[in-house]
Design goal:
It is built from eleven helices and 17 strands. The chain is an alpha/beta fold. α4 crosses α5 and α4 packs across α9.
């Protein structure tokens, strides 16, 4: 099968990925073999490819927003059959026995593993996933529209939960890529007033088209103080900016897995009046199921730009440069020809 792998972590402009032939993986007894139809292009894939995240698997195949079809099952799998439509997401496994798992916080499991980081992911024609961590996908939405929901959507939803936004609250979104434009749709459907602060003119226009109350530059002040905010851009310099924009008791959640260094915070201007700064670490499977239910109920849809699988490296370059709004999605070249 055709697949991408990280040759040597480094700037994506210098070609840190290579397109290779790999054998089709064999699923273990508790796994599914998934024929990848589409795979979303996530900023985490860029962090894996460029070395912002430490290497967990040499020459790993990135990708963890997979919409596909079950091609084979391991002998112990009972809840999926060949031909089922499934999704593969970032969280691949947990130990299920640690204190965090037992209390329902499996996203904090110290023995967790991740698709496209610890195991080969979806920048390929086939991938595998433990059946217990696969998602049943609806049959009435096209693959490309579903792929970004499986990480960008789920993580944005968890970040929204981390803001503890009150009903009808004022929400600021810093950065407006694949995750933020899905999060915005959920927040708006739940009655929030959303203000978007981002660098790209196309992103600002998309935000307004989706119903945001305002859209301004990333370092601008929103038109009103915020009850909660989410930082999607991996830019530490924006942390004090967002903290200053919070009203008393407001909460800033940082959604990304990687963030550049944060400058010192001024206690009086940026932390006093019980403002809070929270991180977001992966997600639980319950987050995923809850988000997919909300996405279906509120008809949350990703704005997507399709690339053939063979152009994955270019898609990551375009993501880094901010050349598109919404999300990029890789389409299996073979599927495109069918």
């Amino acid at each position: 099968m055709h697949a991408w792998e990280v040759l040597e972590p480094g700037p994506i402009e210098q070609g840190s990925l290579r397109y290779v032939e790999k054998p089709i993986p064999r699923p273990r007894s508790d796994e599914l073999l998934v024929h990848v139809r589409t795979c979303g292009v996530c900023r985490t894939d860029l962090h894996v490819s460029e070395g912002d995240l430490p290497v967990h698997r040499q020459h790993v195949t990135p990708g963890h927003e997979v919409a596909g079809v079950v091609a084979a099952t391991g002998g112990d799998v009972r809840n999926f059959i060949v031909g089922d439509r499934v999704g593969v997401a970032w969280l691949r496994s947990t130990d299920g026995t640690c204190a965090y798992c037992r209390r329902g916080d499996e996203n904090l499991c110290p023995n967790s593993s991740y698709t496209g980081w610890d195991a080969d992911g979806g920048y390929a024609e086939y991938t595998t996933v433990p059946a217990a961590f696969a998602y049943q996908l609806p049959g009435d939405v096209e693959d490309a529209a579903l792929s970004p929901l499986l990480c960008a959507g789920i993580i944005g939803f968890r970040a929204l939960l981390r803001t503890s936004l009150p009903e009808g609250g004022r929400l600021g979104l810093y950065g407006f890529g694949g995750s933020a434009h899905l999060c915005a749709q959920v927040a708006l459907a739940q009655g929030a007033r959303v203000h978007v602060l981002t660098r790209g003119e196309a992103d600002r226009q998309l935000a307004l088209d989706l119903g945001a109350a305002s859209a301004r530059g990333a370092y601008d002040e929103p038109p009103e103080l915020l009850d909660g905010a989410i930082l999607f851009a991996p830019v530490g310099d924006l942390v004090p900016v967002a903290m200053r924009a919070l009203d008393r008791g407001g909460i800033l959640a940082i959604a990304g897995i990687h963030l550049t260094d944060t400058p010192p915070l001024n206690y009086e201007r940026e932390l006093f009046y019980e403002k809070q700064l929270r991180s977001v670490t992966s997600n639980t499977r319950r987050n995923g199921r809850d988000f997919m239910t909300l996405a279906s109920r509120h008809k949350v849809r990703a704005t997507t730009h399709s690339y053939p699988l063979s152009q994955a490296q270019q898609a990551l370059r375009d993501l880094k440069a901010g050349r598109f709004d919404g999300a990029a999605v890789l389409v299996n070249d073979i599927v495109r020809r069918e």
